User: Fold these one by one.
Assistant:
Number 1:
Amino acid sequence: MELHQKSLTDAERIDWLRLIQTKNVGPRLFAELLSRLGNATQALEALPGLVRRGGVRRKFTIPDRQRAETEMAALGAIGGRAIALCEPEYPETLAAIADPPPVLFVIGDVSRLSAPSIAIVGAHNASSNGRRFAENIAAQLGEAGFVVVSGLARGIDAAAHTGALASGTIAAIAGGLDVVYPPEHEELQRRIGETGAVVSEQPLGTRPTARHFPARNRLISGLSRGVLVVEAALKSGSLITSRLALEQGREVFAVPGSPRDPRCRGTNDLLRQGAILTESAADIVDAVSSQVLKYRSPERPLVLLQPIERKEETEPTLDHEKIIELLGATPTGVDELVRECHMSAAAVQSTLLELELAGRVERHPGNRISLIL
Amino acid sequence: MELHQKSLTDAERIDWLRLIQTKNVGPRLFAELLSRLGNATQALEALPGLVRRGGVRRKFTIPDRQRAETEMAALGAIGGRAIALCEPEYPETLAAIADPPPVLFVIGDVSRLSAPSIAIVGAHNASSNGRRFAENIAAQLGEAGFVVVSGLARGIDAAAHTGALASGTIAAIAGGLDVVYPPEHEELQRRIGETGAVVSEQPLGTRPTARHFPARNRLISGLSRGVLVVEAALKSGSLITSRLALEQGREVFAVPGSPRDPRCRGTNDLLRQGAILTESAADIVDAVSSQVLKYRSPERPLVLLQPIERKEETEPTLDHEKIIELLGATPTGVDELVRECHMSAAAVQSTLLELELAGRVERHPGNRISLIL
């Protein structure tokens, strides 16, 4: 089964939605479940058994189909769509990141998601100069055929969207598509949906909290060929977005500013670290035109392996307890774990997947794992 | 004869002064004459013959000794000194450039010329922010043990000198030591001479004109381990200084600024070309502390070769006319000339030296030469 560019039926899409909305299932675990079990429908059926084997005693029911159908209808009612990672309309740049959202909710012109795009982000408390710069360069990038992506925040984000409204800009938001944050951007969000697109990976009704913003930031950089940072203090959210961009193999651009303005410390620091100095749209167009798209036609992260052999037992086996014993609160490398527990790598991975679904272990970057105490 | 670090007698120093003040003799030709004729006194004696062989028909008298002695006395009267390139007090960093002034005039503390130094240059019409930045960073560099070098111009230069007054700053000026330009910096120039030093390669009484400033700029960078540019428009004098610094193997530092301010275009462009981004003195101290001084203990550019054999004839010979015939207004490579004229390289060089002294040919960078029509 080739998951790349396969359109789903409505029923299949409902199952994708149910699976990603399952407790303890994030983008990475979703991909692992699909690669082991073939498709979302089969993964959902296998869930109760996997969770029990992972050590959860109470009854586990798979997420409600009715509820997912209701959500999909509500999405349709506000003019939204859900696009699955395997579908041709899913943006290729976003599909190429390590943890793409399995389902992306979109209001607006879905075709804008596949046009070459540049993210513009920066300080919420931006200077008047910074806002004007962002608005102008966004307009220029729009005229040059780029879609401007940003996060609908106050300051630089809002200025960038405003400058690029005419050319169709993309807002990646942290909450549900029917939630406006910050509230004063209601009109702006509506207008973006008319000429461009508003995207989110969160279910309708989700009010954004602190944990949603870093996830949203990876969408901003993931949707883009490069990220331009216009005014950013040290340790600001924009710098997180630029770090994610680098991890995703995207270009980072930064606008220089006076050392006397704390809002330029972050951008100057990016320049010191090798970001491309940007004074006008030409600086960006020049850099991305000569860019070799590392993420072009990638192998999408969902690759189907042989489905695991489903064992009869549903109770935790000796394997699970052996691994639990070896783990602690400090993350341990999975490779190390495999060496220490005298099990095959495949058996360790299956066991970890079940423990993760059961909420007993946590994944960390660098293929490391820790016990949730 | 070893020209490196040899103190001169007063009479010898007078002859150095007479030779460099001879018509058509600049720093490079001065070095060539010394290397061919052994010392300034012998070079002066040979001059009339060389000039006649170069094709000047009118009577040539060597520069007047009395006049040079008077100038030296006038220099002493205002507290100044003349330091020759071969003397131990001549700053090593300046001696290492391609065309060091053979004689440097100094008022103030000569020992400051040999301390580690950083030049600070920038726009004359600098912003208030830029001036404050220059003054603060100059003070910090002074506290960190660096001598701040600048050009006594309006704007950034004046701010840098002011900030570094307490630690002893060096002003390299375009006119004579007894001329103040711009006039409003009379008090500043006097104060610099008290705690630091004012240097010039021009004779007393010289009023600076356009041609003196690029020559002065090479002194600023030549005296320094690195040049910091604070605010500079595109195509400004500060960018010339930074280009000279690169040619001299010195580090270039630049302060980032808003793309909306034309006074930051030049500095941002330097950053794009690889200048070190500078927000505080620490950025400079870090960079030069780890610097390998390429110009440390260099072979001084004056190396004595065998004196040329003095021919009897004083009239232009066939050689001279052959070379004149091959040259035109467009610069030609000397190597090419040697190949075309069927003379030895040494003979071509001697002939060119005579033609140059006679004001008939002009040297260009890259060992090229053109006819003065």
Number 2:
Amino acid sequence: MKDKVVLAYSGGLDTSFCVKYLTEEKQLDVYSALANTGGFSENELKDIESKAYELGVTEHTALDVTNRYYQRCIRYMIYGNVLKNNTYPLSVSSERIFQALAIVEYARKIGAKYIAHGSTGAGNDQIRFDLTFQVLAPEIKVIAPIRNLQLSREQEIDFLKKRGINRDWTKMEYSINKGLWGTSVGGKETLTSNQTLPDEAYPSQLQKEGEETLTINFEKGEITKVNGEAFTDKIEAIKTIEGLAASYAVGRDMHVGDTIVGIKGRVGFEAAAPLVIIKAHHVLEKHTLTKWQMHWKEQLGNWYGMFLHESQYLEPSMRDIEKFLESTQRNVTGKVIIKLKPYRFEVVGIESDHDLMSSVFGEYGEMNKAWTASDVEGFTTMLATPMKIYNAVNKGELNLEDAED
Amino acid sequence: MKDKVVLAYSGGLDTSFCVKYLTEEKQLDVYSALANTGGFSENELKDIESKAYELGVTEHTALDVTNRYYQRCIRYMIYGNVLKNNTYPLSVSSERIFQALAIVEYARKIGAKYIAHGSTGAGNDQIRFDLTFQVLAPEIKVIAPIRNLQLSREQEIDFLKKRGINRDWTKMEYSINKGLWGTSVGGKETLTSNQTLPDEAYPSQLQKEGEETLTINFEKGEITKVNGEAFTDKIEAIKTIEGLAASYAVGRDMHVGDTIVGIKGRVGFEAAAPLVIIKAHHVLEKHTLTKWQMHWKEQLGNWYGMFLHESQYLEPSMRDIEKFLESTQRNVTGKVIIKLKPYRFEVVGIESDHDLMSSVFGEYGEMNKAWTASDVEGFTTMLATPMKIYNAVNKGELNLEDAED
Amino acid sequence: MKDKVVLAYSGGLDTSFCVKYLTEEKQLDVYSALANTGGFSENELKDIESKAYELGVTEHTALDVTNRYYQRCIRYMIYGNVLKNNTYPLSVSSERIFQALAIVEYARKIGAKYIAHGSTGAGNDQIRFDLTFQVLAPEIKVIAPIRNLQLSREQEIDFLKKRGINRDWTKMEYSINKGLWGTSVGGKETLTSNQTLPDEAYPSQLQKEGEETLTINFEKGEITKVNGEAFTDKIEAIKTIEGLAASYAVGRDMHVGDTIVGIKGRVGFEAAAPLVIIKAHHVLEKHTLTKWQMHWKEQLGNWYGMFLHESQYLEPSMRDIEKFLESTQRNVTGKVIIKLKPYRFEVVGIESDHDLMSSVFGEYGEMNKAWTASDVEGFTTMLATPMKIYNAVNKGELNLEDAED
Amino acid sequence: MKDKVVLAYSGGLDTSFCVKYLTEEKQLDVYSALANTGGFSENELKDIESKAYELGVTEHTALDVTNRYYQRCIRYMIYGNVLKNNTYPLSVSSERIFQALAIVEYARKIGAKYIAHGSTGAGNDQIRFDLTFQVLAPEIKVIAPIRNLQLSREQEIDFLKKRGINRDWTKMEYSINKGLWGTSVGGKETLTSNQTLPDEAYPSQLQKEGEETLTINFEKGEITKVNGEAFTDKIEAIKTIEGLAASYAVGRDMHVGDTIVGIKGRVGFEAAAPLVIIKAHHVLEKHTLTKWQMHWKEQLGNWYGMFLHESQYLEPSMRDIEKFLESTQRNVTGKVIIKLKPYRFEVVGIESDHDLMSSVFGEYGEMNKAWTASDVEGFTTMLATPMKIYNAVNKGELNLEDAED
């Protein structure tokens, strides 16, 4: 009996090569598995399955981890307003982790001796796969044929041709990775530092003119309604927002940042729903959370995003941060009003029973009901004390005029 | 001989009232002083001066602190990419501090017994004035007539009328504060949580169509060229960028945040140059700084902004943070290419000799020259070790499948 | 019918004065309340009660909040290894908050119109009381007679004498505040910067010689056993440790730090149990938590301590931090072995099923089982990449020899 | 002509093996280099040199980097009060980096093709060497014979014997690493979690009884006097303090923490001078720095220590942190009084012109001169506002009594 290998399979050239390579060169029983985090339609899934069998896999499985991906990741990225480098909603990086988790779990279930993936040696994904596999299943050996053989596309195509596989492997002008939480677009301009992607490079194109109001209701930080319609399935809510916002071509940008492999990477992305949701959620928080909740959420949310990106999702501190983030959401409940316009959107405002800008004690800048002139004088006297002492002790160090300008 | 009072004077209703009140009710010699941080034209300055004398001040002075404001504040806000709550460039709050500093310095110079300001008891500015005055000149007493008498506009106008001052004090629909680093717009919609300012509320209106390329050169974090033209005067450089960008009506947004007086405040602003400069600078940093420089800059830059906003500019730790920020800028040199479009702009890219996305060691995602497949395997093996041990010791705690979803 | 005032009563001179002052000068019905956080014996409680009635209170109540204090505060201070400025276990400051909470709750329950406390205007406690009262019962007015009348001890004694109260109010040489989580000692040397308290100033004196082993078992961060004996009552466990450790006169130190009122304060303390428990807990964590759990615990634990100290216990972010801290404790289970010696103690080591220093993968520095030489080479190659690129791009900036020494 | 290899040579078994292995098996010209960071006497240096020539090196050099080590590292560790995990002064780890820097600089100077070191594959040092070498001299290849050949001590001894080298290689019971900034002690008990080192394991033994006062003067954070005697050579000052303090056997402890290779490590150390200096410096800072300077120093100082430990000394952000730390020291000037006793020491107090506990505005807890009762009331009213609003809006969420205990 042959040994089993679970292959993280996508239907593309690299993983197609892997099937043939593993079955014929390595004499393994290939169990291809597609970990679906919400980026595939039914038809796409069927097509991938039939192609897998055609290549000779022993068994193909589609692992649906969309719900887990939402429950254990997207939810926290929203709570944490996670935008890497203030820009990027971790569209692809966060999904890879959940795909890796699904693959390793499946491999342990069927008692596979190997796990294989089609990543090259150039990017982040290989780390996300290898690391997750090693942590959770140190007994299973990882094979990464494309990386280890250092094959070019032409060599792969040639290898497949010789084994009777003649598909159209035409390389797209841009390498596009579509997922539930956004689509990344790489190639050409993204390999330079001084050019940006042309409009045509993005999968979604502007379809609407004028402007349109969109409302999103949150309850304890989670989406409950879109334009007044209730959603219990959060995935559906996200897809609905994506449908509305993507037609205005919003949520496009370029991310420049540090990769896990240590070099700077640059990638374009479109992520209409993630951007709209995070900005809306953030504004709702500005109204419902206190200054120090916002302060610490920013620290921990950004760190969470960084670790998620860098394949440290399983690090135990991530669970602790999730508890923190969840706790902060207890009053993040209300409606956010957004205006969609071509290529941009704005958050108009919010309505919430938990709005701390409530006028119970007066509006800012208007007649105040919560304090007197004398209270302010006392306040500033006390606030001034430490600096007053410092300046007295340190002989006027704080006086600007004494220093050169 | 009467006692001297220095009045922070702007020419508006509140400070006009203060002149009359201090001279006639308090029997003080009023030295009116306008602290100019770059928001006034020559004509405006003259007009303010003549109005001051008309009201009866003993002496009027315009204190130009524009350069100091740039050297000791704006520069660091750029280094730190300071946007409060990820949104607001501290347009007005940072200027107030430098106005207060100029006033207190002047008061000490002329031996004033009192300093007066026209702030009400409702906002942040009173704290910025009182606190700065107290820290640097605890021997000088602060008078804030509007706050302490709790006067309404009508009462002030009436008081002035009775003393022969009949000007047009018509209240503007919006309260507008114009400065070098942006203009704030308050009133009506900003007092609600669910409405946003209409286009007409903003002082600058869209004047251009189509798109236009703007380039900004930075050297060690400071602007040196705009569209190829060299600027040694950084204030002029900022004003030039403002002129170009404001005609596209970019840099508008709403800031919602915590005030020093403890309640939530909401204010609109337009800050074309600050937003364009900060975003451009930030992208240049993403290319030229390391991951950990970016990480710590974010912590310290945000804190710097918060303290600046909250009137803690004189706190000694601010000087330490400035040293840090300055040090990080040693390689932030290069050209940033921006595209201006109606109501929005995008950073196209950068060109820099210090670009760490340099292809010396290969581009991200392409064939790598800096490591081998085996290096990555070693890397992930080592990275995985702590979590592998954790999972072994803690009996599979990290395995997701064992937990409920 | 007279209005009710709840007086935070301790039986000392200041609060005795308050009873007489409030009943006779203010014509109020005084409800004296002693909020007990674990620092009083049964006899002390009875004595305080009888003295209260003797002074003329309408009703006296002892509010036992020891358990709440542990559940809602001490527990988190242990989880967070809270030592202010790396030294001080917040012995008194944390208790004041829970006393204030009990008082305001009681005042609301009996419908009091006023709350009174005996704090002077010089310290932190007045802030802790006032702030807590205002936040939770803005409708109740606070009276602080000693602070507002600025009375000297002599004036208070005189006032009481005139009303027939002749007790021995002899001032102690040191002001001592005894509580469950430590005792503070102020006066004489603590008012200087260059002297320390003599041994005799501390309430507990060295009673033992030689050395003694103490073991503490923790389960999820909470004490379960002391020297092998199980404790369900955590208060009893703490008192048992205190009994053992205090006889070795350990846990003494001086705290110098920033007070809420803005000046530096210096105070001696003895806190045998808190110091032993926190150090023991900390070492157990070093063995059972990951690097990043320790990293973030330090940030959040220190902040928690600072906010607790500064009367910000009710700030909503504190509840979020508690969730974080609690989550980190899931594997902090094991036995810690401590050696007590005169004036010092050392943590010998720990035993835990969750010890990550487990030899499953080899001991540090010994033959390793988890990686190969080649893995380390790959690891360092990858780790070196960003700095290698930086140095290449920035023309040898990292080479030390090129710079002056 | 043979290729040159620079060998980081210490005279021990491992590096002695390397000389023979590199000359005879690899046919290289060995340039042995001892990087001295202050832990060697003249005699030791001579002995090491003669042994090197005896083994057949082409040339031996002693590189004295003591001064650089102080200027570029120890100084900042003092500024930052660096104690890893609140315990360990990075005695050995920080020295390794400066040894590696000296070695790579020397290798570049003489045009070596290889650098060799004697580290095993089990510890942190290999990473410190490899990483530093790679970053600064990517063109030089690193050889680590002991690691790569996985040799046992016996095999090494045998190899040397066969080549006529018969020295006494008796393994010490503990592995001891002596340096300027402390000595580490590993072996036996440190490989367990539940035992501590016996007194005899430490190189320095208790030599004095009773107690002794020690004073240290700091100027801008650097030591200028010890017991009143001025020192311009900071290394001498440190050695003088070490001489005095070590005779009381202070500064011993166990460090448990995360290694760079990913597992937990435990090591004993004695570091009398570092501990005394850091604690003294820290107390001086508590008196001379503001709350927020202390706050940020703690964050950045701890991070600096972590990165130093983990071989990230060359990371550019470290230079930025150094600028921050240096800036904070501008007023850290004064005398610290310490009392040395057997096995422990206490900081008695400080004297400084920059002492913020100055009585200009009154002592803490005593009659205050800087504010009135009314000021405190205003202060607490303002401080209470955000929480008062929060509690009003969120229907009493902050009231503890409504929740279960």
